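Hey, can you fold this?
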Amino acid sequence: MKKGIFQILIANIFNLIIGIVLSFMVPKFLSVDSYAMYKMYALYVTYAGFFHFGYADGMYLKYGGKRIDKINRDDLAKNYKNFFYIISIVAILFLIVGLITNDYIIICFSVGQFTTNLLSYLRSLYQATGEFSLYSKALNIEKIGAFIFTFLFLFVFRSDNYLVYIIIQVVVGAIASSFLLFNLNKRLCFISKGGFSFSECVNNISSGIVLMLGNFSSGLFTGLDRWFVKFLMSNSSFAMYSFASSLLNLLNAFISPITISLYNYFCKKLDFSKIVHMKELILAWSLLLIAGAYPVKWVILNFLEKYENSTRIIFILFAAQIFISIIQGVYVNLYKANHMQKYYFVQMISVLIMGIITNGMFYLMNSTLETFAYATLFTYFIWFLICELKNREICFKISNYVMILFLVIVYFGTGFLLNPIVGLLIYIATYVICISILMPSVVDFVLNLLRNAYLKLNN
């Protein structure tokens, strides 16, 4: 598992560099209105996973924990071709709707959902079977392609047409999907085998639809604050909030290697003491990563003045990552590994309803952009508590909760009131002291890791 985490982490560090450039470059050189439309498509495509009706999730559960070389080629061929037919039919239907309504966003979505779902299917297959090397290469191809094309159209052709940048996302998704599919077929020679299987469709959808609905509800919940902003605030407000939300991807580059690798691990074995240790490591890591809000604030204040009002939103949403990393990395992976899809779905519906109520109530009390960010943070915190109470055998110690509370207070105080450089220094110093006193096992783990790495380099 460590090797898998390392492979994805290296890919994500590379992607992070590109992601940082794109995250700041696109909003700086696009007009606010074009950027708002560009992010509107990005919000739509997050719901593409609904349109395979749980088939990909059934595959994820079916092959989880298995070695890819041990999967029957005829079985995999049927599985893949069924999925291909499903998303092709959906693409054609959306294309017809888009052409009839003359809606370019829907036309782009018809193809975008196809490439997004195909890429997601192949990534999930590699993730479920522990094939992290090719998974990482696909990430690199997608990001490099997005960077090259975006750079060309921003600086060479100087285009402010949001459709161009939407099409770029579709094209790079198709390229990355083709790469994964080519390598998978080169290894297993499965494309020429098998055919459509109605029974396989029924089995995969029936086993995966509840998980898909849970994931879909999670996607609805993740974009809930942006939908409230879209319908209740101005177009420029939506652009401002979407910009802040998009910067969460900078943190995901360091969190996702852990969350991706843990599912495969949980499918093979469960050890409560190790899970608790992993939770503490993830907590320590996420508390460190949110410090990224300080340099982000400095960049915005100095180079992106038109998005200055987003800085407080960024700090609030980054804080939510503390709870997101624990929920997605540990609890959701455990639910999937233990085939608790129904419980996960019910939990997600409850959280979604709570999120709708919370966003509505917070908006009525104070109708500002920050309101929706606070509502998101509050809802994730409640979701985190629900998971902790449900799984008492792996819940945190009191000292962990105290540390979270104290560091969040310091984080907001220094982030809102101080110069970002001064705030960063104070937060990091406080973080080191808290971790050393309240989580010594994490410090020991990190020191041993560094010691072993040093010994390997010198042997």
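Oh, and this one too while you're at it.
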Amino acid sequence: MDYKRCWAEIDLGAISENYKKIREIMSPGCKYLAVVKADGYGHGAATVAAHLQREGADWFGVATLEEALRLRKSGITRPILVLGYTDPTAAAVLSCNTITQTLLSAEYAKQLAAEAARVGCRVDCHVKIDTGMCRLGFEAEAPDTVPAIVSLSRESSLHITGIFTHFSVADDISENATEFTHLQFIRFARVCNLLKDAGVDVGLRHCCNSAGTLMRPEYHLDMCRIGISQYGLDPDPCMKGQLPMKPAMSLYAVVSMVKDIPAGATVSYGRTYTASGLRSIATVAIGYADGYPRALSNVSYMLLHGKKAPVIGRICMDQLMLDVSEIPEARAGDRVTVVGKDGDLAVTFDDLARWIGTINYEVVCGISKRIPRLVKPE
């Protein structure tokens, strides 16, 4: 198939390099959980997981049961942890596919245990502890948390193999944020120690996301959950250079036509751009339905023939326009670098995020499934 419209290139070699760099800084014996939710942060979950399984990743993390099942169907045999909610009525599906489910509250855990007992199966579980994120989990400071987990550990239909929490500001290097991350760790360690004293084997203890793994080696414990960093992106701009990574995704599109417009002509919906003089514009075959945010209208630029070409006018669903007045060699069929390098210049997902006031996670996860992912082998 000829993908001459827009496409993403996924560099497996970059993912390997990032994986090895992260492994090198992890504590000895610490397991690597590769987070591949949201279709591998837009990179293709099945492709990334298969590659990281070959590299030696110990676990995989997803957000939903459906994502976990797709990994199993694609040939992933390593343990998979569902980090979010799964309907308790799916207990048998979890068990039959050896998928580990997060216990996100006492009420939820009881429902899952009851359903598993009803159908005669046993579900592997990791207990989530809320140490300050205030999202999911047993509250670390609540007096009934430890007794509730002790009780759950005796449920024959549940098999607790791990316990974890999630840092909310590990990617922030300010003193206040550092203190809060430490407080979260202390709260988590206290729960783990109380459970140990009560005779409960909590299994794998894990609290570090990408930022925590890079910044807080003293918190690595038994496993680290690596997401954004393995794709070569920084958890936060303030962490740039903390551990040099290689971006795994580049994004390209083609010029569909080039034409001149006179002074006073307006471009695209809403007429938000008016030509100040004779301008040459190129229409490019990518739009917001492909995941290039409409908010980048009249804000961003792309690279063509090693030069910057500003995006002008409102970005459309399937296409957008560039000002190529300073690029006289522009022709229909030319490749445009949307994200990536062209000569001495580069556009990054961090650039796109900064231009519209969001984070690189959102931008890269938003790349549409209709954009083909072309895998570059190592």
